[in-house]
Recover the amino acids of this structure.
C-alpha cells in the first residue's frame, strides 16, 4: 500500500469507491478472494486509488471486521492508495484509533451522519480523532447540513481543519439538478482552494466539476465495473477535451439512473456481480437485497458497462512467433 501523504497533486485522479463482497451465508463475512478480484479489475483499467466507504457499507462493520479489512488493505501493492472510512459516531471513531495508528493509512474518511451535531462540536471531535489516530482526514460533504444546520459555521470549521492540516481532502457529494449552479460549493471554494476538493458523486457531474469548478478529480462507483472509460474521462478533462469526456460519460448514465432510482450502493453491489466481475454476495443488515425484477433490469446495463470497459482497454501488441532454425 502507498503510505505517501495525500497531497493536492495526488488528488488529481479517479478514486474508485468499491462495494465489499461478502460470503453468501448467515455470517456474511467479508470474502477477500472476491475483493481481490474486484480491485485487480479496477486497477487493470488504470485506477489505483481506492476509497472504501458507503458503497462498501462500512457504516455497519463490526470492530473485528475492521481489523481483517485493514490487514487486507495494507497488503496491497506499493503503488496503490487504500483509504478506509470510519464513523460516523465519535465513539466508533475513537474505538478505531489504535488500529489506525498500527496501519498508517495515508488518510481516513469520516462518514457523514444525521445524528445531533453542530459545526463547533464536530470540529472538536474530529480534531481529537485525528490526533489520537495519528491519521489525516478526508471530510465527506454529502448534504449542506453535513457540518450542522448553520451552513456558514460548518464551512468555516471545514476551512480551519484544512488550514491546520487536519483535513487533506474533501469529498464533495451534494447532488444538484445542474451541478454548474451550486451556491454551497461556491461558498466552500471561497474558503478552501479547489485543489483540496474532489467531486464525489460519480460520472454524472464529474465533467462539470472538473471543467467549471476546477476540481482535480472525482470518485466513481460505476467505474468499478468500467474503470478504463472512467479513467478516460479524467484524462480527457485533464487535457481540456471536455467534448470527448462528455461523450464517454454517456456510457455511465443508464447505470447511474438505476443507482439514483434504487439506491447507489445497493445497485452497484448487485451490478458488480451481474457484470461477472466478482461475486459480491448479500448486502448486510440493515439493507435488503434488490428483488429479482430489479436485478433483471440491472443485468444488461451492468454487462453493457463491462463491455464498454473491455472495448476501451488498450490493445496489446501481437507477439510474433519465435523463428527457429531449420
Amino acid at each position: 500500500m502507498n503510505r505517501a501523504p495525500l497531497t493536492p497533486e495526488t488528488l488529481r485522479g479517479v478514486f474508485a469507491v468499491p462495494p465489499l463482497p461478502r460470503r453468501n451465508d448467515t455470517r456474511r463475512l467479508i470474502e477477500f478472494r472476491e475483493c481481490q478480484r474486484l480491485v485487480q479489475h479496477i486497477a487493470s483499467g488504470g485506477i489505483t486509488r481506492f476509497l472504501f466507504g458507503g458503497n462498501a457499507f462500512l457504516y455497519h462493520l463490526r470492530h473485528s471486521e475492521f481489523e481483517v479489512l485493514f490487514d487486507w488493505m495494507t497488503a496491497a501493492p506499493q503503488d496503490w492508495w487504500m483509504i478506509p472510512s470510519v464513523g460516523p459516531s465519535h465513539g466508533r471513531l475513537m474505538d478505531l484509533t489504535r488500529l489506525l495508528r498500527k496501519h498508517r493509512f495515508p488518510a481516513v474518511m469520516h462518514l457523514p451522519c444525521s445524528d445531533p451535531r453542530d459545526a463547533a462540536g464536530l470540529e472538536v471531535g474530529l480534531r481529537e480523532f485525528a490526533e489520537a489516530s495519528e491519521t489525516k482526514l478526508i471530510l465527506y460533504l454529502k448534504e449542506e447540513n453535513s457540518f450542522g444546520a448553520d451552513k456558514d459555521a460548518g464551512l468555516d470549521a471545514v476551512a480551519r481543519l484544512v488550514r491546520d492540516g487536519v483535513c487533506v481532502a474533501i469529498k464533495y457529494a451534494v447532488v444538484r439538478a445542474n451541478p454548474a449552479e451550486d451556491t454551497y460549493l461556491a461558498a466552500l471554494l471561497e474558503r478552501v482552494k479547489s485543489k483540496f476538493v474532489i467531486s464525489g458523486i460519480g460520472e454524472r457531474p464529474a465533467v462539470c466539476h472538473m471543467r467549471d469548478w476546477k476540481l482535480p478529480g472525482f470518485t466513481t462507483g460505476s467505474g468499478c465495473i468500467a474503470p478504463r472509460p472512467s479513467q478516460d474521462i479524467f484524462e480527457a478533462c485533464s487535457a481540456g477535451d471536455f467534448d470527448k469526456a462528455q461523450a464517454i460519460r454517456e456510457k455511465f448514465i443508464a447505470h447511474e439512473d438505476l443507482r439514483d432510482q434504487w439506491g447507489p450502493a445497493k445497485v452497484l453491489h448487485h451490478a458488480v456481480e451481474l457484470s461477472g466481475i466478482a461475486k459480491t454476495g448479500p448486502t448486510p443488515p440493515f439493507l435488503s437485497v434488490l428483488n429479482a425484477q430489479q436485478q433483471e433490469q440491472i443485468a444488461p446495463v451492468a454487462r453493457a458497462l463491462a463491455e464498454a470497459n473491455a472495448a476501451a482497454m488498450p490493445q496489446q501488441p501481437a507477439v510474433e512467433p519465435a523463428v527457429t532454425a531449420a
